Amino acid sequence: MADPTNLSDDERRLAELGYKQELSRNWSGFSNFAISFSIISILAGCFTTFGQAWNNGGPVAISWGWPIISIFILIIGFTMSELVSAYPTSGGIYWWAAKMGGARAGFYTGWLNLIGLLAVTASVAYGCATFVDLMLSTFSESWADGYSLGRVYLIFVALLAIAAVLNIFSGHLMAILNNISVWWHVAGAAFIILILVLVPDQHQSLDFVFTERLNNSGYADAKYWFLVLPLGFLLTQYTITGFDASAHLSEETEAASEGAAKGIWRSIAYSAIGGWIILLSFLFAVQDADGVTAGGGAVDVIFSQALPQGWHGTVLLISAAGQFFCTVACLTSASRMTFAFSRDGAIPGSRLWSKVSSSKVPANAVVFVAVIGALITLPALKGVGGIPVAFYAVTSVAVIGLYLSFAIPIWLRWRMGDDFEPGSWTLGRKYRWMNLVAVIEIAIISIYFIMPFTPAAIPGHEDFSWENVNYAPILTIGTLILLTIWWYASARNWFTGPKHTIDEAVVEAFDD
């Protein structure tokens, strides 16, 4: 039987929650912040989903939409910081839900979170593959002439494989890579901003950046404010996500009740500021707005307009490298969630996915996440005009899955009121309004992001095409239906929520 007197403070708290220390606890508070900052990655989301905001709202959706939505996301982050401080476990989101709402709440939350993490890993890796292809095309005409969605998909699979190998090698290596990633994102973003400020011969006016509206969605202009513009907010909501990684890595973080809590809200705040500045630099660098629209709203069109080939390629290189760091971090976070959820028997094949290697890494879970990511992105092999519409569907799935999983424990904490026992980092009485605002914002964006992005995605429309369909509602609503059937037909009989992996006598000793 484990001796409670020989445990560190972190191990003692983990034991109080029912778990023995299986993973290597060698992440600093900075490393914990670094993984969430790397997954948010302003060098990824700001680049890969720029077109969504450009086509659905235009500069207004970016210059005003980004800071406004960022404030709401920061409120969500504050509520989650309080929760991770109280319950610093790798299960994170689903563990909180099970603790406060019972096994069923934990079951639904865990699956929504896992689906979101699988989707965000896939979407980031695919975005990285796209920018690697763009970078190579910038330096090689023959490579550019051979473009195909199939080639991008192969690059995507190769990047997933490399990220998986790095993750399997060592958990400590991941901490080091994420520390490097922070500085790459800071220095890289600053360098890109300087390039876009100094190199172009001319820049757009303040009036264009802060008042120009665009509607390239196909919907009527009368629907701009209540449908088109909100669809453009996917840029912000998708980019600033994945910060629950700080919770999933809490069992590997020193002084986790403080470090993981600060990791969540700081990663959001710093990314929001940096992301806004870099997005403004994109807008000011636009040389021909009609040309950007003709290019599908892709940010690379702005670079090709404003920069000579050498500087253009440099920007793409910096972004692609940042996106690869993001891919590696996403895979780390998703594998830890898979490990924790499997540890409690919730995933078919749990014994396999919860197994830890000699390096104290859930290697099988890493492979599981990489393979699933490759499979769910297969629809991106099809596209319209060379643009994989399925990519935006995967980002929607990521946003909806992750944020719905956040909403459940946030709501449960609000419902507990003063019965909730906070950790060392707490909101105090501010939880009363912050938790409600967080849940309402999540409910609203979840409704918008399952809507068709264009009328051509609506069955029965004269321009309907399956390539345009946003399959996010099929995956999310379909998954919820399947989970409900599974829960009532089987899971409720065997899933009891988080299981203790430490001697029961030790847990009882802490409870006494």
Key features of this structure:
single chain, Amino acid/polyamine transporter I, mainly alpha, two-stranded antiparallel ribbon, membrane, 68% helix, 512 residues, 25 helices
Report on the structure:
The chain has 512 residues and is mostly helical. It has one domain: Amino acid/polyamine transporter I. The protein is built from 25 helices and 2 strands. Helix 2 packs across helix 19, helix 6 runs antiparallel to helix 16 and helix 11 packs antiparallel against helix 19.
Quick take:
This protein is mainly alpha-helical and 512 residues long.
Please describe the topology of this protein:
Layout: H1 9-16, H2 29-40, H3 45-48, H4 50-55, E1 56-57, H5 59-63, H6 65-86, H7 93-101, H8 103-139, H9 141-145, H10 149-169, H11 171-198, H12 206-211, E2 214-215, H13 224-232, H14 234-239, H15 245-248, H16 256-284, H17 289-294, H18 299-306, H19 309-343, H20 350-353, H21 363-376, H22 389-416, H23 431-448, H24 472-489, H25 504-511
Antiparallel strand pairs: 1-2
Helix pairs in contact: 2-11, 2-16, 2-19, 6-16, 6-22, 6-23, 7-8, 7-22, 8-10, 8-19, 8-21, 8-22, 8-24, 10-19, 10-21, 11-16, 11-19, 18-19, 19-21, 22-23, 22-24
